[in-house]
């Protein structure tokens, strides 16, 4: 274990059980977490049934196609850890979310998230991070890209129905309280807002509930992407990587 990982593990030990399990998943190979290889870089828990395994193979194939079509090519191949039981998910650091980006090119999918939109969402995080050459940000977020953009882009790529433009219109029509984008720049700020506005209950599938934080980010990035397109997205990534500020790059690509 490098000193850097040691420090992270210490920080996570101080911050709670779920986070500690998350650190295990971040640091250990899937086989050490009791997962079986279903396909190259796709791992499932031993209890997952044959039918679920077959379904999940299809989910992976479609999610890969979604990422390829959206970005124009695919540069990431995250380790995909999929759990068919809550015990498996909790044991590897899951919790309320349906899926989790563990960083270090690893995504964790809950039994409630073995779907194309959820895997596509998490894969979008891995793809953007790989394209940004951001190697060490799974826990802390990317410094150069605001969290609302990373999350909003994942919402747009995945076309998750719960965060759609239709849902946004209902949020506006009902004059629901929404956060400011400025409060969603860091991962810490994002997580705070997700707690405050109840988006962390997303996984619980409360009927009729609207998830304002994800839907707001999706609406913002969808509006930008309609003008910028794939070309604008790739240009924005290039600009930020070459040192331009995100704000300038975002504005320049939305004309
Ligand atoms: Zn996300």
Brief overview, please?
The chain is of the alpha/beta class and 255 residues long. The chain has helices spanning 3-15, 17-27, 50-71, 86-91, 116-131, 147-158, 165-173, 187-196, 212-241, 246-252; strands at residues 35-39, 42-45, 79-82, 99-103, 106-109. A 5-stranded mixed beta sheet has the order 1-2-3-5-4, with helices on both faces.
Task: Walk me through the structure.
By secondary structure, the protein is an alpha/beta fold. The protein folds into 2 domains: 1-115, no CATH class; 140-255, no CATH class. Helix content is 53%, strand content 9%. The chain has 10 helices and 5 strands; from the N terminus they run ααββαβαββαααααα. The chain has helices spanning 3-15, 17-27, 50-71, 86-91, 116-131, 147-158, 165-173, 187-196, 212-241, 246-252, and strands at residues 35-39, 42-45, 79-82, 99-103, 106-109. It has a 5-stranded mixed β-sheet, sandwiched between helices. A hairpin with a 2-residue loop joins strand 4 (99-103) and strand 5 (106-109). Helix 3 (50-71) crosses helix 5, helix 7 crosses helix 9 and helix 9 packs across helix 10 (246-252). The radius of gyration is 18 Å and the shape is globular. The N and C termini lie far apart (47 Å). The model is unreliable at 1-19 (pLDDT under 50). Zinc ion is lined by residues 121, 125, 151, 154.
């Amino acid at each position: 274990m490098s000193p850097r990982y040691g420090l992270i593990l210490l920080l996570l030990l101080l911050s709670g059980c779920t986070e500690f399990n998350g650190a295990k998943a971040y640091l250990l190979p899937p086989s050490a977490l009791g997962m079986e290889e279903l396909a190259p870089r796709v791992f499932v828990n031993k209890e997952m049934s044959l039918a679920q395994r077959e379904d999940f193979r299809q989910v992976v194939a479609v999610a890969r196609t979604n990422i390829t079509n959206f970005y124009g090519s695919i540069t990431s191949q995250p380790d995909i850890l999929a759990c068919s039981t809550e015990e498996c998910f909790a044991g590897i650091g899951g919790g309320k979310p349906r899926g989790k980006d563990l960083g270090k090119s690893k995504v964790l999918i809950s039994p409630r998230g073995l779907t194309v939109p959820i895997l596509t969402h998490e894969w979008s995080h891995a793809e953007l991070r790989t394209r940004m050459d951001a190697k060490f940000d799974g826990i802390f977020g990317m410094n150069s890209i605001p969290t609302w953009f990373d999350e909003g882009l994942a919402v747009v790529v995945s076309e998750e129905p719960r965060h759609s433009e239709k849902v946004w219109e209902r949020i506006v029509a009902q004059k629901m309280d929404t956060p400011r984008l400025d409060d969603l720049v860091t991962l810490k700020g994002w997580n705070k807002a997700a707690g405050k506005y109840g988006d962390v209950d997303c996984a619980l599938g409360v009927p009729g509930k609207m998830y304002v934080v994800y839907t707001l980010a999706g609406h913002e990035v969808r509006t930008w992407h309609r003008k910028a397109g794939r070309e604008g997205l790739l240009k924005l990534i290039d600009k930020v990587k070459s040192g331009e500020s995100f704000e300038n790059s975002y504005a320049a690509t939305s004309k």
